[in-house]
Every structure is written in structure tokens, then in C-alpha cells.
Design brief:
Methylamine Dehydrogenase, Chain H, globular, Rossmann fold, four-stranded antiparallel β-sheet, alpha+beta, 9 helices, single chain
Length: 428
């Protein structure tokens, strides 16, 4: 990648300032100064000011140096830089001036997920989104001068967050690593054992699992479900190494973490035997597909949405080749050995009693081609010896993102809720 600069007050073509950039570099011009965020010589990212020189030997000056915690995002408003971090699943946002001096820290609850939205260039006020397991997304105005947030807009839903709480527990994974997990539910559910339980995670691309609101999860919690969210490896909850630990040829590590979380829920009595369900979409759909084929005995029901499940051929269709850095492909012999050991489609076994399974996909999906869902449904139906239903929820208009009309999205969500209520025998 080459980077060019064009000054509005000058004539002539843009000037190339960087050539063959093979690292992350996002630039911002403030007056005549060039600032940027980069992972050049800093895997956890740093914010720099770049003094441009005509010979290309530019000077890089650290404004916010790299730390052991990766920088998540940054925004500039007025004369302030807002820099977000996530450490140990807790969001933090620090405010700096342009010299790198720390001004203050934004007040954030430990159970909140914060996203920096934006700000007008002439103001130092910032718009931020905040949500939690029990509170849907709200937008706040934040002023570093007063160091306080004020509500700007909030979703109104018939759900009382006061009735719900969460806890954080730790379990031991297959290789001896301690992995944290959120448990969320009604207060009476958190205080008892033998609960119908739903579980999900992600485990890839450095995506951290932090408190977020889900209508799907909220409905099931209202009906007595415990919600479990393990922070499995593949995310960045504990930095770059937590991601690398389950990347590409280490992929099975994420599945081991997830399965050990399920075993912990059952062994400790938190989840009732025969009433543990898992769900996930996209990379999380691959996660639950791998979990159900490796340990079908652990789960009562599975909702697998817009997944990739044939990992030997996934890269040959549509846009999926872009995932090769994270997942590897069979074109590499070492990658092939790993992919063949966990590819869910290839590990469906005849004569096995599989859990009730709802697979969701559609013709318009160009990220995870619907062939994965179609062939996996057929293979499971042919192999299954249990009486549990295995079926495909399919729409010719459904894609990887929620592109269906609102009415159809509501119907699809209702179907998933009804499926799990039925399989977990929830009171309705």
C-alpha cells in the first residue's frame, strides 16, 4: 500500500509520503501536523506524530506509546485525543492532549462495553455508545472538562435491568490455562444450580467478548435461562498472545476452551444436564459446529447461524479467501493437517446421537457461502440416531448481515427463541 497527501492550499498532484506499507497505519491531519495509529514496531499499537521529510526518512514521535494492553480505538475532538483500551474484559478510555499528557480517564462501569462514536472537530465533547448485558445501547455526550457523561439517546424496551446481575468465574482449560467466563441471569437464577443454560463465544480474529445486550439472550434469561459467555482464546481479552494462542494452526485451542467451559457448567451443577444449549453465527457458527461434532453428548440444542463448516473448501467460494490468514487453507500442508482434524462437516459420524440443531443461512450470504449450511444439515440428518430435530432455516434473501425486512427478522428471531424454549422446556 502507498500513502499520498494532498494539501488543499497547494496546486499539483498528491505527494506520495509512504511506499509499500505492510503494517497498520491510519493517519489524521490536524492543522499542519500528521498523527496516526500504527502497529509498526508496536504489536499492541501506538499513536504517533510523524514529521514528514522530503527524502522519505520521516521522524516518528510517540505521543501515546505502546503498552502491554492493545489500543482499541482513538478519536480526536477539539484539542483532546480519546484512546480506548480493553484489559481483563474491562473497558477504559483515557484522554490525552497532543503532547501525550494524560488529562483524565472517562468514568466507565466495569460491566459496560464502550464504543467511541465521534465528535465535531470544533468541540471537545465526544459521543460514546455504552451497553451491558442488561442494558441496551445508549448514546452519551462526554465532556473531559467536567469528566462526566450525559445521556443523549437511549433505547426504550420492556426489560428491567435491576432484576438481573452477572458474575465472573474461572475454569481450567485442557492445557491447564485459566479462562474467565461471565455468568448472567436473573438474580434468583444466579443463586441456584440446575439451570437451563445457553452459551456462546467467538474465539477468533482478536474479537473480545465484553458485556453487550442481546434481545435474544434477554428473552431467554427472562424465561429462566442462565447465560454463559466464556472469554476463550482467539480474542484479545488478554492482549495479542491471547489471540495468537488460537489462531490458524492453534485453532483447536478455542474449541477446547469452549468445551471445557461447557464441562465446567455441567460438573459444577450450574447447568442442568440435558438443558445446555449453544448458539453462534459466522466464526461463532464454526465454533458451535466444531463443539457439537466433537462432543455431541454435552449439548441438548444448537443454533448455528451463517457458518462455515467445510473447512477444507471454504476458501474456494465467494469472499471467504480473505479469512486465510486467520484460518489457513488446505493449500498449505501444515494448515491442511489442522483443518482436517476439526472441520465440522468432515467429523459428522454415522450412528451418533446429535443434539437438536437449527442451522440458519440464505442465498445472499457471500461471506460464508450457504453451501456450508445446506450440506451440513443433510449430513447431520443422515447420520443422526437421536429423535431430536435437525433442520435448516433458510431464506433466499438472507445474507451475512441482518438485511431482511424487519418483519421477517422478527419472525426469524421468534423461531429461534421458540426452538430453544421447546428444547430446553422453558416456561412460556
Amino acid at each position: 500500500m502507498d500513502v499520498y497527501i494532498k494539501r488543499f492550499n497547494t496546486d499539483g498532484p498528491p505527494e506520495r509520503i509512504f511506499s509499500d506499507v505492510d503494517y497498520e497505519l491510519s493517519l489524521l491531519m490536524i492543522d499542519d501536523a500528521v498523527y496516526g495509529i500504527t502497529d509498526k514496531d508496536a504489536p499492541n499499537r501506538r499513536i504517533v506524530q510523524i514529521h514528514l521529510r522530503g527524502n522519505g526518512d520521516h521522524e516518528w514521535i510517540d505521543i501515546v506509546p505502546e503498552t502491554e494492553t492493545p489500543i482499541g480505538n482513538w478519536l480526536v475532538a477539539g484539542d483532546c485525543m480519546f484512546v480506548s483500551y480493553t484489559k481483563d474484559m474491562v473497558h477504559r478510555v483515557f484522554v490525552f492532549d497532543f503532547s501525550g499528557k494524560k488529562i483524565c480517564e472517562m468514568p466507565i462501569r466495569s460491566d459496560e462495553t464502550i464504543r467511541l462514536v465521534g465528535a465535531p472537530s470544533e468541540s471537545d465533547e465526544l459521543l460514546v455508545e455504552a451497553e451491558s448485558f442488561a442494558e441496551p445501547t445508549a448514546i452519551f455526550r462526554y465532556s473531559p472538562r467536567a469528566n462526566e457523561r450525559k445521556t443523549w439517546a437511549r433505547k426504550a424496551i420492556p426489560f428491567d435491568p435491576a432484576d438481573y446481575s452477572h458474575a465472573q468465574v474461572w475454569f481450567i482449560s485442557k492445557d491447564g490455562t485459566r479462562v474467565p467466563m461471565y455468568l448472567v441471569g436473573r438474580r434468583d437464577v444466579l443463586n441456584k444450580s440446575g439451570n437451563p443454560t445457553i452459551m456462546t463465544s467467538y474465539g477468533g480474529y482478536g474479537v473480545s467478548m465484553t458485556p453487550q445486550f442481546s434481545v435474544f439472550v434477554a428473552f431467554l434469561m427472562e424465561h429462566g435461562c442462565l447465560f454463559a459467555l466464556p472469554n476463550i482464546r482467539g480474542g484479545s481479552e488478554f492482549g495479542i498472545e491471547w489471540h495468537k494462542a488460537a489462531k490458524r494452526r492453534n485453532r483447536q485451542t478455542a474449541y477446547d476452551d469452549f468445551l471445557c467451559a461447557a464441562e465446567w457448567l455441567l460438573k459444577t451443577g450450574r447447568a442442568a444436564h440435558g438443558k445446555l444449549a449453544i448458539f453462534g453465527g459466522s466464526n461463532s457458527g464454526l465454533l458451535v459446529g466444531a463443539a457439537m461434532t466433537q462432543r455431541p453428548d454435552l449439548f441438548r440444542a444448537v443454533v448455528c447461524m451463517v457458518p462455515m463448516l467445510d473447512m477444507l473448501r471454504y476458501h474456494l467460494f465467494d469472499n471467504a479467501h480473505v479469512w486465510k490468514e486467520e484460518l489457513g487453507t488446505v493449500d498449505d500442508p501444515e494448515d491442511f493437517s489442522v483443518l482436517a482434524k476439526y472441520s465440522p462437516y468432515h467429523h459428522v459420524t454415522d450412528g451418533v446421537a446429535y443434539p437438536a440443531t437449527m442451522i440458519v443461512s440464505g442465498d445472499a450470504d457471500r461471506n460464508c457461502n450457504p453451501l456450508h449450511a445446506r450440506k451440513m444439515t443433510a449430513r447431520l440428518q443422515a447420520a443422526n440416531t437421536s429423535e431430536h430435530p435437525i433442520f435448516l432455516d433458510y431464506s433466499k434473501h438472507r445474507g451475512h448481515s441482518p438485511v431482511l425486512p424487519l418483519g421477517e427478522r422478527v419472525e426469524a428471531l421468534t423461531d429461534r427463541m421458540a426452538f430453544l424454549c421447546d428444547q430446553l422446556q422453558l416456561p412460556v
